Amino acid sequence: MTKSTHQILYIILFVLLAVLYFIQFSSSSNTENIPTVEKELAIQPLNEGGLNIAYVNSDTVSKYYEFAKKIQKTLTTKRSEAEGQIKSKYFAYESLVQEFEKASPIMGDREKMEKAQKIRLLEQEIMQVEQQLSEQVSRQELELTQSYIVKTNDYMQEIGKTLGYDYVMSYRVGGAMLYANERHDITNEIIKLLNERYESSK
Fold first, then answer.
1. d(CA 33, CA 167)
2. Domain ranges of the chain
3. Rounded distance, CA 81 to CA 67, Å?
4. Please, which residues have CB within 8 angstroms of residue 52's CB and are 6 or more apart in sequence?
5. Can you tell me the distance from the alpha carbon of 145 to that of 71, in angstroms, rounded to the nearest whole number?
């Protein structure tokens, strides 16, 4: 090949690369505002007449689903309130014990017995309050969790039918599903639709 032929080939190659570069970036700028899930759904259309299965990352849903965030916030508040009540009881108990220890050398036997009895009663009270609050918080957690599961399941029944899937699986690290093809991941779309259903049901 002559030097001029090499130059022509280099020019053609350069032009082709420039065209490919332009096509790549112009197409990505047009879809830049489209959520990842929608792009994947467009690439991976539903299989007409076949079995349509997708999956959702449960950990991501818990992080961005407004109803889940509300439940978590409520539970955190209730636990903090219970812990606050117990701490105040412990503070009163510790103060009483310190007072008893300081004054013990100059107390009479009867006064010592009365103070010791008061401390024992406060100990029992703290144990009872701790148990009651623990049971109360556990009961509230169970009720809130059941409410979350039932409502979210109802939303998912509607969403699954709307999107046309036969099955929408739940995936999380360490869960039963060991591998899932990312092309079938509709987590972002599900979060968007779950939040819409939740907001409309308020």
1. 28
2. 1-33, 34-201
3. 21
4. 46, 164, 165, 166, 167
5. 8
With a CB cutoff of 8 Å and minimum separation 6, the contacts of 58 are: 170, 171, 172, 175
Own/partner contacts of 70-79, CB < 8 Å, gap of 24 or more, are 71/144, 71/145, 71/147, 71/148, 74/144, 75/140, 75/141, 75/144, 78/137, 78/140, 78/141, 79/137
Superfamily in which the 34-201 domain is placed by CATH: Skp domain (3.30.910.20)
Structural element, H or E, at residue 195:
helix 187-201
Residue type, 63: K
Q: Residue 152 — very low, low, confident or very high, per pLDDT cuts 50/70/90?
A: very high
Q: Using 50, 70 and 90 to split pLDDT, how confident is the model at 42?
A: very low
Average pLDDT over residues 100-117: 86
Does residue 178 have a pLDDT over 80? Answer: yes
In this prediction, residues 10-27 reach a mean pLDDT of 45
13-22, 53-62, 89-98 — which is least confidently predicted?
A: 13-22
Q: Mean pLDDT across the stretch 48-68?
A: 90
**pTM passes above 0.70:** no
The number of residues making up the chain comes to 202
Crossing angle of helices 187-201 and 109-163, in 10° steps, is 110
